[in-house]
Write a structure and sequence with these properties.
By secondary structure, the protein is of the alpha+beta class. Helices cover 28% and strands 18% of the residues. It has 16 helices and 25 strands. It has a 5-stranded parallel β-sheet. Strands 1-7-6-5 form a 4-stranded mixed β-sheet. A hairpin with a 6-residue loop joins strand 12 and strand 13. The longest helix has 24 residues. The radius of gyration is 23 Å and the shape is globular. The termini are far apart. The model has no long low-confidence stretch (mean pLDDT 97).
Length: 541
């Protein structure tokens, strides 16, 4: 075992982790950044989810570094792809033309864009990046974490890293458990939080949002790329949750906001896979658009499959033993492959036939040989018990009205950023009665309170991903790309600022003068936005 020493250790290289490492390095500190997969970027890259962003993203509501990330992505396409005149002239180029985001793109391009941000700090080893390393142990002394041990997934060798500040940017909040940091999992009780949409009766720790194993496909109508029939295909072909209008593997699902049944197929136009913009599944998360290039240059778009049919709600990843977790992960892969096989062989076609064998799995754009994303898309993590917990009453339109509170989200004096996304919970694993359906409700654009990043007890660990002080309900709006980046960047900046000034995170938050200094650092040096204009704060989505 080797030992490394640094100023700031960031465990987890998703968007939050990359942002944290970048901020700490920009503020002059030495950083070790670790990541369990081969790619930095988490939900944007290894989990293969195009950025889900708010409608103001092009002009406000993000940090300067997040804007640099988005610019890097667009610039990469302009530098390296032979775009047609219209695409090249588009100031707000959407590389994939997908409907979910104004900047849908191939996951590997996200990796390149992040690496461009971090490269200057790697040149002199101010920043060290350890890919394919997962945390396996943490050492503590009182209310301090003193070291974290990581194991290489390739060699099995271990390295122990010591640092005065440790950031947990893992996808599941792994350090919270390894270091014994107080945290919660699953769904809180309404009796405890007062949230209108929390569960009745006792809390349900095993009731966690579905996770999803995404994959990418293109389409060649004259080809046959049918995969081998998955081992568990018979199970998934007939699987139907009690609240679903049909078998899960079908074109039938529900509108998340109303739960009304709907039909939404992969194609609604014969030319959909060649850049034709339609309101179908193909268009929604399209990451490569043939329409941006000369006619005939590319035979097909590429789209990312992250659809209701592959939301895995049959069991949780947290609060279970390793064997059970591994079983759920394997089952999720089978579910995704079964949906692909169903689309290739049994799906009702646009022309009245059955099956689209021309759907081709594109693991090459995801960096894998098996065709699926490197890692599952995680929607819900362990969540730290923090000095401040964001509740539905702080952001939810209905909850604030019921509580007699004024329109608009809670105003936090300790804000370290902003975000906006609906309170969007995909079907969850439920309890002994089985999965529960969507919770998708309106909220107001919100702030990110520093108190949600400060553990109640531990002094030198900061959450930097989806593991901040939210609830099962409010995690549903704090979990997407720009917010995760902002949370991570704020945590990295706070760790560096505390090292540079000698203050502690708790002291910074609770001393008005120190808080003002830190917020000035965020807005001045790093280009953060700490509040929304009033007409946006009081709007709702």
């Amino acid at each position: 075992m080797t030992v490394q020493e640094t100023d700031v250790l960031v465990v987890g290289g998703g968007l939050g982790g990359a942002a944290a490492a970048l901020a700490a390095a920009q503020l002059g500190r030495r950083v070790v950044l670790t990541e369990e997969s081969a790619w930095l970027g988490g939900q944007m890259t290894s989990q293969a989810v195009p950025p889900d962003e708010h409608p103001w993203i092009e002009t406000q509501g993000a940090t300067r570094n997040y804007r640099r990330l988005r610019n890097n992505i667009r610039d990469y396409y302009r530098r390296t792809y032979d775009l047609n005149a219209d695409a090249r002239a588009a100031a707000l180029l959407n590389p994939g033309g997908g409907g979910v985001s104004p900047i849908c793109h191939e996951p590997r391009v996200g990796v390149i864009a992040i690496e461009e941000l971090l490269a200057p700090y790697q040149a002199d080893t101010q920043l060290t990046v350890l890919l394919e390393h997962e945390p396996v142990a943490a050492e503590t002394e009182g209310d301090q974490i003193t070291a974290v041990t990581l194991r290489s997934r390739l060699s099995g060798e271990e390295v122990t890293v010591t640092a005065p500040y440790v950031l947990d940017a893992t996808e599941l909040g792994d350090l919270l458990e390894l270091a014994g940091v107080e945290h919660v999992i699953g769904a809180e009780s309404r009796d405890d939080t007062g949230e209108p949409h929390a569960v009745d009766g006792p809390a349900r720790p095993l009731d966690q949002q579905a996770f999803t194993w995404c994959f990418a496909v293109d389409y060649h109508p004259d080809g046959d790329f049918t995969v081998d029939r998955p081992a568990d295909y018979a199970f998934w072909r007939d699987y139907r949750p009690d609240f679903w209008p049909a078998k899960l593997l079908s074109w039938q699902d529900v509108i998340p906001q109303t739960l009304a049944p709907r039909r939404e197929a992969i194609f609604e136009h014969p030319d959909s896979p060649r850049g034709h913009v339609t309101a179908d599944r193909w268009n929604f998360r399209r990451i490569f658009s043939a329409a941006h290039y000369a006619p005939g240059r590319y035979a097909s778009d590429i789209t990312m499959v992250n659809w209701p049919q592959i939301d895995y709600m049959a069991g949780p990843l947290l609060g279970v033993d390793e064997a059970t977790r591994a079983r759920h992960l394997a089952a999720a892969r089978q579910q995704s492959l079964s949906f692909l096989y169903w689309m290739q062989t049994e799906a009702p076609r646009l022309d009245g036939g059955t099956g689209y064998p021309g759907l081709r799995l594109r693991g090459d754009v995801l960096g894998t040989d098996d065709g699926l994303a490197m890692r599952p898309y995680i929607r819900e993590s362990r969540r730290v018990l923090a000095e401040l917990t964001v509740l539905e009453q702080h952001v939810g339109v209905e909850a604030r009205a019921l509580a007699g509170l004024p329109a608009g989200s809670e105003v936090y004096p300790d804000s370290v950023g902003v975000g906006s996304y609906r309170i969007d919970l995909h079907p969850s694993t439920g309890d002994e009665d089985g999965p529960r359906t969507y919770i998708d409700i309106a909220d107001h654009p919100f702030q990110i309170p520093l108190g949600a990043l400060i553990p109640r007890r531990v002094e030198n660990l900061l959450p930097a991903n989806k593991n901040i002080g939210t609830t099962h309900i409010t995690n549903g709006c704090y979990r997407l790309h720009p917010v995760e980046w902002n949370v991570g960047e704020a945590a990295g900046a706070l760790a560096a600022h505390c090292l540079n000034t000698g203050a502690t995170p708790r002291k910074v938050r609770n001393d008005p003068a120190l808080l003002a200094d830190f917020q000035q650092l965020l807005t001045g040096t790093l280009g953060f936005q700490l509040g929304w204009p009033e007409h946006i704060r009081t709007a709702h989505r």
